[in-house]
Amino acid sequence: MLAQDDIPLPHPLVRVLFVLGDSDTEQLRELPNTLAKLLQHHAIFERVSIRAAGEHLNSQVHAVVICLIRGDNSAGLADLLDGVETRNIPILLLTDAPLTAASQTALWNTLPIGESPQVIAAMLRGLFTRQSEIDTLRQANRGAKIQTDRLLGEVTQMHDELHLAGQVQRDFLPKKLKEFSGGAVAALWRPMNYVSGDIYDVRRLDEHHVGLFIADAVGHGVPGALLTMVIARGLPTKEIIGNTYKIIQPGEALASVNRELLARQGNTTRFATAIYAIIDLRTRVMRMSSAGHPSAIIMRGTESIELIQCAGGLIGVFEGVEWIEKEIQLHAGDRIILYSDGFEFAFPDPPESSSAAVKQTPRHLQELCALLPITQPSDMIADMERRLDQQALGCTQMESFADDLTMLVYKVS
User: Fold this and answer.
1) Is the pLDDT of residue 360 over 90?
2) CATH superfamily, with its number, for domain 4-140
3) With pLDDT > 70 as the criterion, what percentage of the chain qualifies?
4) Which CATH fold topology does 173-412 show?
5) Dihedral angle computed from the Cα positions of residues 312, 316, 320 and 326, in that order, rounded to the nearest 10 degrees
6) Is there a smaller number of Cβ atoms within 10 Å at the N or the C end of the chain?
């Protein structure tokens, strides 16, 4: 004997739509009453025809029993099944058709129409109990979908805002770098993501002086990009004195940026490396100061290379720091390369080089020095872009562009 009472029904009272075909026999008409008794009257059975069943489907129906004998008119059955499945209502099909393997794997449960009422009642009880769990999971899934849609909306909004931030940052960069009397210049600027912690500037300070500047904020993403905005706006170039002016030299300019960063930090410490060079186009003398930045490179024609190291602390750390200046005599045809430390990550040294008896030149410097035979800044930048693209092809997504990349090339006329 089946112990139907062992499993409690999920509702105090459940409603079952009992759908009859043309074969409305006395046994089938009495079956709902028998089932109600076996379910201890916790279920109400409502007898309807196949054609009228669709009108009775609503949220109050907990299960549908369909009695279908071969030869019955099945008009309206397809619409009924669609409505039941759309509403996720469990179905029990009672039929005199042979139960094949295919019918057992259908989306609804099937029993012989002559099955004992006890077995049918037990099947319904199981459907009621299982449906309660399914409804709970379905509700949790709806909640998860709502949460996912909300998160996707926030991610899309963040994506749009970061694109806008990247565009704003690009507006701070020089719009065009053309050739001018005294030199030619070209630049490479590759953010790791939407925005960059690097920024550069090329300024014609007056008729006889050009300023070259790169800063690399420590950190990535929006915080680094915001810091570059402060640095770019805080770099002074001239001091107006009555009807004349004085060009602010690199060491003094970096000291001014340092004061600006310290004044805006609040409770957080944010700092950056930077390099600033001013070239006198008349004498071809370059004055340069560096704040913890990678060394500048000077290519003398197509045969020799010089690394210009200039000691100096980071900007944004200590007050009262002074930056020394170094003077370098340039000649016509010389190219000055300023770059950020992202190239060290873009072109990492092979692991075996660290244990070599003779210390090899770092790979990123080898890649930069390979530009020596190229004489035009725009061609040098194009060649480096190609090298970076080739390097990225051999890296995983996590390895490629692990830092922002910036490079300035200036050729002396």
Assistant:
1) no
2) Response regulator (3.40.50.2300)
3) 88
4) Phosphatase 2c; domain 1 (3.60.40)
5) 20
6) N
Q: Looking at per-residue confidence, does 25 or 338 come out higher? A: 338
Share of the chain above pLDDT 90, in %: 39
Running DSSP on this structure, what letter comes out for residue 361? P
Tokens of 176: 């065009």
Write down the pLDDT at residue 178: 62
Q: Is 186 exposed, middle or buried (0-12, 13-18, 19+ CB in 10 A)?
A: buried
Yes or no: say if 287 and 325 are a contact pair by the CB < 8 Å rule: yes
Q: Which residues of 282-302 are buried (b: 16+ CB within 10 A; e: fewer)?
A: eebebbbbbbbbbbbbbbeee
Q: Give span(s): CATH 3.60.40.10, the chain.
A: 173-412
Task: In the chain, list all ranges with CATH 3.40.50.2300.
Answer: 4-140
Chain-centre distance for alpha carbon 330: 45
Task: Please tell me the predicted confidence (pLDDT) of residue 11.
Answer: 52
Give the separation between CA 131 and CA 153, rounded to whole angstroms.
32
3-state helix vs strand vs coil in the chain, percent to 5: 40, 25, 35
